[in-house]
Amino acid sequence: MNRDPALNVLATQADKSLKVEKLSELPAFSRVLTDGSAGALLKLPAAVEKHVCAIETGVKRAIILYDAEKVALVRPFISHLRGKLIAEKFTFERPEIGCGGGVIEHLIENSRTKTDNTDGEEDPALAQSKAKEIFESWVALAVQERATDIHVQVVNNIAEVKLRVDGELEFLRDQQGGVYTPLQAERAVAWAYNNASGKGSNSNSQFSVGENLYCMIAAREVGGKRVAMRYQSIRGWAGIKVVCRLLYVDIDAPTLSYEQLGYALSHMKQLKSASNTPSGTIIFAGVTGSGKTTTLKTFIETHPGNGTDAFYSIEDPVEYPLRGVHQIPIQRDLLDRKGSAAKYAEVVAGLMRADPGCVLMGEIRDPATAISAQQIVETGHMACGTVHAHLISGIVPRLTNEEIGMSRDVLTNPNILTLLVYQALVPKLCPHCKIGGRLYQQGMSDAEHVFELLDTLENRFQLERDLFYFKKQGGCPHCKHRGTAGLSVVAEILTPDRKWLNLIRQGKDYEAMMYYRSKSDGNFRSENMDGKTVFEHTLYKALLGEVDPRHCERFDSFDRFEIMNDADRAETACYT
């Protein structure tokens, strides 16, 4: 029996790999034209409305979607829909799109939910209960997957919920595939802000999609862990975005060691030496989400004076409970910088009369925190803080820019800076499915780049390709098909000395960094990280087969990285 040629075209399209499998893969659209609601532009029989539909992608522009697994069923209705849309003066910007099973059904359900909740009355108590259930289900799955963040964003007339796991964003693995209606998502994040936030932590009294809001979600038991969250909403043209950072705050949990975090033995030696220094500033730098606060927690809780000296913290907001520390919450108003500075100065003045041994400053991000840190150190105490800066070479420029306003003369005075730490987090390879350099093949993900990288490692760095391993795209059951299994710190640490301070005072930042590097042993295979950069620490972990060498490129390129020989180190050691 001969098949309809048009049906053959649809069947061929359905076999192609470009089939849409998720709502988030659909082109941008403003509404569903055939959702079966009272206001729908076109009506379809109930038997097929979950297998074929039309979406409006612009002014009088439409695309028809069909279930690629039901081609024979939907064929007559596609022709019917096309005729109806043409009669309504619609144009088509592309051919029909085949969709995987359930995509159209989910799309129709989302559209109906939005319409029903807009047009009809709903019991407010029931709506709140549903919102709470949705938000708490996200948190439970995030904890189960060891996620660090939950991202909720309105995109393309839907809301996407993603988790950051091992440093990468992925869709929430729930029954809905992380896709919700904008109304469902908005109600869920509004419930969290209005009902689950810690006392006094809200930046506004009530949730609003038109405001950038932040708060701390109060700690609760989730999946056997005690979890709090740092909540930040960002308004946007297409809709709201909310990011919740998960904070594991069990006060009875053992303190993570530097080794567990991922630091090298030579790093630990410098950190422990700094903790035995009675005064000075300890700076932990890194980008957002690099684990600075976690490392600072380890530094404070393993400090030899913790328990025998007075430790204080000034935090906006308090994120983790710190063992042996009197924690002072202070909420600064970004719209009232003068008032916030006065409030901060008042707290520091009180601390100066409270016999401090060490003061944790939180993030040094403005003149108020900078002046306070300086005051604490100049009176003979230790100050610890974090800075958003990229690499050790970026710490002093960050502290001396207009936003923070410290001077190089102050920073380079003796006993002001005790230790500078820059750290980042990189995913650890799954030991069960990582791919050896020799086994990487054409056709694998990013193969051309991997082969170029391996050639550079062999020819420029004199490192055999057999030593390196790469992430397997799609992973294996052991890593839940991620290819990674947790995160590890990579770092560079500098203990300022007289020569380095002199170069920084003169504004010779490049020379200061090269002087720091002159203390390296120059051996990429060596575990000694003295004088080595975060690029080199990452490369060393790649040599051990722990991380993918492509993560080195977050800090420098393999072609551009300055490889120093003995003569270079001798020359830079003499910089003045």
CATH superfamily of the largest domain: P-loop containing nucleotide triphosphate hydrolases
The CATH topology of the largest domain is Rossmann fold
Largest sheet: 7 strands, antiparallel
CATH class of the largest domain: Alpha Beta
What share of residues are in beta strands?
15-25%
Rounded to the nearest angstrom, the radius of gyration is 28 Å
Level of helix content? 25-40%
The chain-level structural class is alpha/beta
Tally of DSSP helical segments: 17
Overall mean pLDDT score?
89
Low-confidence stretches: 1-17
| Record field, number of beta strands | 21
If classified by CATH, what would the architecture of the largest domain be?
A: 3-Layer(aba) Sandwich
* Ends distance: 89 Å
Tell me the overall shape.
Answer: globular
Domain count: the total is: 4
What does this structure look like?
The chain is an alpha/beta fold and 576 residues long. The protein has helices spanning 5-15, 71-87, 103-119, 124-144, 182-195, 258-261, 265-275, 292-301, 337-352, 367-378, 395-399, 408-411, 447-459, 498-505, 509-517, 534-543, 566-572; strands at residues 31-32, 52-58, 61-67, 91-92, 97-99, 149-155, 158-165, 168-171, 179-180, 214-222, 225-234, 241-248, 280-286, 311-315, 326-329, 358-363, 382-388, 417-429, 435-436, 469-470, 484-494. It folds into four domains: 5-119, no CATH class; 124-248, Beta-Lactamase (2-Layer Sandwich); 258-424, Rossmann fold, CATH 3.40.50; 427-572, no CATH class. The protein contains 17 helices and 21 strands. A hairpin with a 2-residue loop joins strand 2 and strand 3. The radius of gyration is 28 Å and the shape is globular. Residues 1-17 have low confidence and may be disordered.
